Structures are given as C-alpha cells and as structure tokens.
Amino acid sequence: MSAKTRLAIFASGTGSNYQAIDQAIKTGELDAEIVLLVSDQPGAKVIEKADENQLAKFIFDPKDYQNKCEFETEIVNELQAHQVDWIVLAGYMRLVGPTLLNQYQRRIINIHPSLLPAFPGLDAVGQALEAGVKLSGTTIHYVDSGMDTGEIIAQESVRVKPGMTREELQTAIQKIEHELYPKTIQRLILEGDSF
User: Where is the active site (predicted)?
Assistant: First the structure.
C-alpha cells in the first residue's frame, strides 16, 4: 500500500473548503492527508480549524518580507520539509509567483467561484450578479502565473435565480464547491499516482 498523497492547503479566510476536504478525508471519500496549512492572514479563521486538527502551519504576514520571492522561498522550504505532493488553494487571496510555480508545476490547483473564463479575480459572485447572468458556478483549475487563467480541470454550474442576493448565490456556489473539490482532488490523485 503506497503512502497517502500529502496535501498542503493554502487559505486566507474562513476555511470552508479546507473543512470540506478534511471531512472527505475523514469519511474515506478522499484518500489523502492534509499535512500543512499555509496562510498569509495571521488572524484568519481557518487557523483555528487547523489548530483543532493539530495541523502543522506556516502563517506569515507578507508585509514582513521584502518581496514575494522571499516569502515563497520560505513556503517552499516548509512544503519540502512536509514532503507535500499537491498544493490546494482554498480561498488563498494571493497570486502565486514563479518561486512556487517552478517547484510545483501542475501540482497547484485552485477553486474559483465562477465558470471561468468568466469573472476571474476578486468578487466573482458580485461580478456575476452585476452582469445579470443566468448561470454561475465554480471552477477548479491548475494555477499558472495569471489571475485564474490556468487550465480548467472541473466545473459545475449553479442557476442564478431572479432576485438572488450575493449571500444566496455565494451559499449555493459553496455548497457545490464543497462536494466538487474533494472529488476532483481524488480524481487527480488516481490519475497521477506516480510521484
């Protein structure tokens, strides 16, 4: 039996996708283990969730560094120390730079609350409502140097009902995210099990 695939979760916020992935591991739907949380927000709620699970963490404030290369070099050291196979961005609100991309090519994935290429970047839910679209949803993609421009791995749509509020649409999208992300990670692990 080969060792479990080792995941690092990168998050800046509440960590609802981190929780969904953790839950899928606990129920056996996802054959992996989370070995590290990386967060660029020292006050993020996700840190409390990681503490409850006694998870190793690397928490940093970008303002303490001269540049992105400097903090990403430290992140790479942490990832290597924890023998991370895949980096899973779960609400990490920062563009990934070349220091990380070069070390983990096609091993970094992100989830975004729109049907890319529509509405990349911040506030995708607000952008969708503003545009008056009938369908929104979520996209899982490989991370490249652009803003939500990497190759698409999986998508699932949500119908935007007339008069829907931002909170309602956000909740509907998160509900499918929490099912799609663990399933997609499992598929990637099965497809690429030659580490």
Answer: 112 (proton donor)
Q: Is 115 marked as a binding-site residue?
A: no
What tens digit of pLDDT does each residue of 4-44 get?
Answer: 999 999 999 999 999 999 999 999 999 999 999 999 999 99
Residue type, 176: I
**Topology of the domain comprising 5-113+141-152+177-191:** Rossmann fold (3.40.50)
Judge whether 53 is annotated as a binding position: no
Residue 96 is assigned to a ligand binding site: yes
The pTM for the full model equals: 0.94
Q: Catalytic: 178?
A: no
